[in-house]
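Hello,

Our lab assistant flagged a job as stuck in the queue for most of the afternoon. It eventually completed. Since we weren't sure the result was trustworthy after the delay, we are filing this so someone can double-check. Below is the sequence as submitted and the structure that was eventually returned. Let us know if re-running is recommended.
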Amino acid sequence: MGTYLNSGNTRFKQAIESEIYIDKTDLIMYINSLVLTEQKYVCVSRPRRFGKTITANMLAAYYDRYADSRELFENKKIATDGKEIDQWDKYLGKFDVIKIIMTDFVKKDKSVEEMLKKLQLLVMRDVLNQYSEVDFFDREDLIQSMSDVYVQTGHQFVIIIDEWDAIFRENKSDDEGQRVYLDFLRDWLKDKDYVALAYITGILPIKKYGKHSALNMFDEYSMIFPMQMAKYTGFTDDEVDDLCNQYGRNHEEIKNWYDGYEMYGIIPPKSMGEQSSSISEEPGQEKWSIYSPLSVVKAIQTGRIQNYWNQTETYQALSEYICRNYDGLKEDVAVLMAGNRIFVSIDNYQNDMTTFHSKDDIFTLLIHLGYLAYDIDKKEVYIPNNEILAEFKASTKQDDWSVVFKALENSQKLLEATWNKDAAKVSELVEKAHDKANNKTYNSEAALSYAIQLAYYNAQNYYTLIQEMDTGKGYADLVYIPSPKYPDKPVLLIELKYDKDAATAIDQIRKRNYPDNLEKYKGNIIIVGINYECDAGNRQGYKHHDCIIEEA
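-- returned structure --
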């Protein structure tokens, strides 16, 4: 037994002997289906406190040829579910296991080259001790030496790297060091006959340069698309229900506080054994509602429903990202805190903690950190539960956030006044919103359109916005079409005028028959004319607005 090579099963024993242990050993049946195949490269990314290390220890205990772990697994799910097909122990104790916790090596005062040199020397020490009979070509070359072991003994390796992304979190700005690290991993793992399985786990998916990954041989199981590992991402509803019954806890309270991560996946092969029912009935797919494991364990043990997230991470970690200066970021955060969802494009995120080009990149990082959940079908993010909402509240206590919240409150009032056809109130609220807007929004209908869109910010919760909608007889400035979730809401057809009057806007809508292009919504259309009247002697004006609202 070595420190890094075949280190035994002690840590997994500690997990299963703990007061609360959720049996996830049936995951091994899926991992076994990948061993010694083209899919043997597995990258699992999850937030802190989501059981990554326990899973890594479980796999190490299972595959380690010297661990003698049969008794640990033969009364667990893997043996029960795999009994019929007699495959649960197919790879039990069959490989040399190298297990590394990368945070043990990453130090801010050490270069990546120094870190990798130390890592290789320590692993090589274990290899040399175990395989003293092997004729090694170069006793300082880990990659060559593992190849020597395979060629001369036929033994293959399972390589498990926990916290694999520590370099990207601790040395955020060391681009060259990150490239050196990724090159080392590629050279060590890719296309090597001695690799039976490479399993790396961390918070971040694999770093991309442009649109390409440096470790493209890995399949990635993430918070966005966990694939066959969806139900293993955290605790399932059934598992939490069993714990609540066992300890006499209130399941509904625990659900409100720690549930809410919707994991969409692929149903694993039948060889994994019978699956518990998910909340999706689509063929070949599954959807699981996942709980934050550590928080559930704490709440079950103590009987106290509270925020346990902040015991492992301070609110500044969230605040650092949501206070970035991207247009609409803070407003979107406020919308999320009100219980709504926001569309997010995840495609351009580079899978690190420094490369951000838009608010979408920020939100994508927050998905991986566990601060947001992601609906892959609708491509929307949302705050999953009360515990995470408490983190957002702690992160938005500064004075500058009060302005954002007030603006969003006024935006909702504006929307409701529009629905109620209260033109005077709409004029008042639009004027207030315009007062807060940049001076560039004063001088044209296009600029006015931007200001009005900001004022109607909350409308995105209920509507899809179409700007300059072609009606066949002209272009309607702003048309808000109700989303399928709110079919009862009226269409809002808004025409804007600059230094004219609201009546002119309404006349244009009617003369050009804009509503005719919305036949589907006939009888449920509100037309709105808004004019910004500037002082003829001062083009910056007083931002006075008049408004007329009518039914189409």
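-- support follow-up --
The delay was a queue issue, not a problem with the job. The result is valid. The first strand starts at residue 41 and ends at 45. The radius of gyration is 29 Å.
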